[in-house]
């Protein structure tokens, strides 16, 4: 059976293949977040917001669309509607609409398509962080959140995640986005552990 990304050996904090060493020495103006479900992207965003960054989520664009349609904001609906918006308006539509709202240092969450990454990289001072953790840890976190999730057990969680990792041009491309990150942060410990790793960036 193929290995799952979340099952690999723990990584503390590594520089991704896309990293520019000189860029990483400067405080980032725009921090993009990608990563697996339940890995800790929300806590990562909160860390930077506490340090003066504004918060934006590409998923908020999709939530606005769902609310306009009168549809439930569920994970499945977010994925489906996000793909629909990319097909209709272009694969980077969520990033373009979000960038138009950014007026200062900001963190941009929920990046899941490589065209979104490319559009955000056009912004000065942009870096992309990928957040990951073991799949068992992430499933437990998601279950504890009590949100509307269609994955009722670990195996269903793995299956749904597999569908999100390597989609087409207008779908979710999580694997490619994580591979393009400037930094990969493996969040398998406590919140203070995560914060210590993020201090290296802030």
Walkthrough of the structure:
The protein is an alpha/beta fold and 202 residues long. Helices cover 46% and strands 14% of the residues. The chain has one domain: Rossmann fold (3-Layer(aba) Sandwich), CATH 3.40.50. The protein has helices at 21-24, 41-49, 58-69, 75-89, 93-99, 114-120, 135-145, 154-165, 174-179, 191-199; strands at 13-15, 30-35, 54-57, 106-109, 126-132, 183-186. The radius of gyration is 16 Å and the shape is globular. Residues 1-14 have low confidence and may be disordered.
CATH architecture: 3-Layer(aba) Sandwich
- Ends: how far apart? 39 Å
CATH fold name, please? Rossmann fold
CATH class: Alpha Beta
Number of domains: 1
The outline comes out as: globular
Q: How would you sum up the major sheet? A: 6 strands, mixed
Number of helices: 10
DSSP strand tally: 6
Helix-strand sequence: EHEHEHHHEHEHHHEH
CATH superfamily name?
P-loop containing nucleotide triphosphate hydrolases
- Proportion of beta-strand residues: 5-15%
Given helix and strand content, the structural type is: alpha/beta
State the low-pLDDT regions, or none.
1-14
The side-by-side strand order for the widest beta sheet comes to 1-6-5-2-4-3
